[in-house]
Design goal:
The chain has helices at 16-27, 66-76, 88-116, 123-134, 138-143, 145-155, 157-163, 176-191, 202-216, and strands at residues 2-6, 33-37, 55-58, 61-64. The chain is an alpha+beta fold. It folds into 2 domains: 2-76, Glutaredoxin (3-Layer(aba) Sandwich); 88-216, Glutathione S-transferase Yfyf (Class Pi), Chain A, domain 2 (Up-down Bundle), CATH 1.20.1050.10.
Length: 225
């Protein structure tokens, strides 16, 4: 089994989608070979029919997209702990919320730091592609830090209220919904040096619990904290 993932300076893993998959694999007790790629060598992913990470190769199976990978793992490794616990529809909703709301807010917050930890040869590509998407330069993003932080904290209110009543988003134990949202926080942890969440925030308490899962999978990653 191989997992293709974006690797920036010092081997830093920043992609929230890769982090979702890494937590899902750990949940299933799987430890694939990790294959690092950078922005300039995405041609290594041509075999998958697209150019985005993560890509999981399991025997003859090639799966891209973190949600599709989670569904594949749930079916192929049904004997291992479930990622969905019978609530796959709810997990899909959380996945869509995280993609469009959580990561939409965090995009402003994390883009400058992602640029900073991108290899020098890839920085022009990174800056230009973000400008084409948004009409903003990296310096524009930096100037919007306070707004980005406010947006991020506000976007988390449904998760905050949920975690005020139970230890994990999925309930009493972590599952895909938790790994999905934690992917965004791993992006922030690896690229943003500021404090995303205020002390005492139920989401911060949950984040600390998540960092310790699977022998500190998240906590041991190279970070900006």
């Amino acid at each position: 089994m191989k997992l293709y993932e974006l690797s920036l300076s010092q081997g830093r893993t920043v992609s929230p989608f890769v982090w979702r998959t890494r937590f899902c694999l750990a949940h299933k007790g799987l430890n694939p070979e990790r294959v690092p790629i950078s922005y300039h060598d995405k041609d290594q992913l041509a075999f998958s029919g697209q150019d985005r990470v993560p890509v999981l190769v399991d025997g003859d199976e090639v799966i891209s997209d973190s949600w599709k990978i989670a569904c594949y793992l749930e079916d192929a490794y049904s004997f291992a702990p479930s990622l969905f616990e019978g609530a796959q529809g709810t997990a899909l909703m959380i996945n869509k919320w995280a993609d469009h709301v959580q990561l939409g807010a965090m995009f402003l917050l994390c883009s400058p730091g992602t640029y900073d930890v991108t290899q020098d040869e890839d920085k022009p590509y990174f800056a230009q592609s973000r400008y084409e998407w948004t009409g903003k330069t990296i310096d524009d993003f930096r100037a919007m830090e306070d707004e980005a932080l406010k947006r991020t904290r506000s976007a988390l209110e449904p998760i905050r209220q949920t975690l005020a009543e139970q230890p994990f988003i999925a309930g009493d134990a972590p599952a895909f919904a938790d790994y999905c949202v934690m992917g965004g926080f791993m992006w922030a942890r690896t690229t943003y040096a500021g404090q995303v969440l205020e002390d005492g925030d139920p989401v911060e308490d949950w984040r600390q619990r998540m960092l310790d899962l699977f022998e500190g999978l998240g906590r041991n990653a190279l970070s900006m904290e």
